[in-house]
Amino acid sequence: MGLLAFLKTQFVVHLLIGFVFVVSGLIINFIQLCTLVLWPVNKQLYRRLNCRLAYSLWSQLVMLLEWWSRTECTLFTDQATVRCLGKEHAVIILNHNFEIDFLCGWTMCERFGVLGSSKVLAKRELLCVPVIGWTWYFLEIVFCRRRWEEDRDTVVRGLQRLADYPEYMWVCTGRPPGGEGGLRAAADLSWLNSSGRLWRWAQQAPRSCCQPRRFPLEEIPLDEKEAAQWLHKLYQEKDALQEMYSREGVFPGQQFQPARRPWTLLNFLFWATVLLSPLLSFAVGVFASGSPLSILTFLGFVGAASFGVRRLIGVTEIEKGSSYGNQEFKKKE
């Protein structure tokens, strides 16, 4: 095992990466708070600045996939679809089977230049989560209560507010929301991962495969009943594609591997240099002092930081996800 592979397995290294993400996230949240004064003066400038700030945060996670785990992300699609990626607003209908599906999606967002402006439909509880939820708030993310009677209007109004967004954006959702606004297309993304476990990243280079399909909005029925049938058929096709991948290891279509860019790594190295240099100097000073109280306090801080990072990771766990829509289905039964 080489030195780099050994370091990837060490908890202390994981903790330092988590420290950089959380502290830089809090700094970014503070800067985002300061940009609120721009909203009544120049809303579009506010949005552009917050896209850059969000990119600086999310790209740290993308760096883990692209550079730390060396994950290869392959698209199975056609050239016409690839030409449209990152060149228009889109609603992304994303299946969610693994905890890192969102990270694979963010990787594609980064490679096609829409990571900072990417949106999601998030459950309202995440609004209170530091770093992640707070960043989404400043990005005008639509937060849902997971009750469709209330969320129907919330989603439509939220997307209508984003209709004049100054940069191309992808709105990731498990189902296509109503209301066209300024959106031009819906894209179906089917993700499958040959290795979906974080702790295996240090031992091998996982592979993620995605098949995007583009549907211009004019091809999607406006009638609610017809739209429901269209969506039902779409998910049947997604299930069939997953079964095909399980058997053959590939999706249909031409293979594309968008080149990774250096900005995610450079951004992380910047934050690591800024934040870890004073931290390591402080840690050396604490242990050099020989004070039991100082050492115990520092170790307590490390333990609290570890707990906080694990709680943030827990936000992405599927078993803690929403049963959104199940209540409606149960009522009908």
TrEMBL record:
Limits of the Phospholipid/glycerol acyltransferase domain: 90-218
Keywords: Acyltransferase, Lipid biosynthesis, Lipid metabolism, Membrane, Phospholipid biosynthesis, Phospholipid metabolism, Transferase, Transmembrane, Transmembrane helix
Record carries keyword Transcription: no
GO molecular function, one term: 1-acylglycerol-3-phosphate O-acyltransferase activity
CDD domains: LPLAT_LCLAT1-like (cd07990)
GO biological process: phospholipid biosynthetic process
Gene Ontology cellular component annotations, sorted alphabetically: endoplasmic reticulum
InterPro entries reported in the protein's UniProt record: Acyltransf_C, Plipid/glycerol_acylTrfase
Keyword Ion transport: no
Residue ranges crossing the lipid bilayer per the database entry: 12-39, 265-287, 293-313
Pfam families: Acyltransf_C, Acyltransferase
Protein family: Belongs to the 1-acyl-sn-glycerol-3-phosphate acyltransferase family.
Protein name: 1-acyl-sn-glycerol-3-phosphate acyltransferase gamma
Gene expressing this chain: AGPAT3
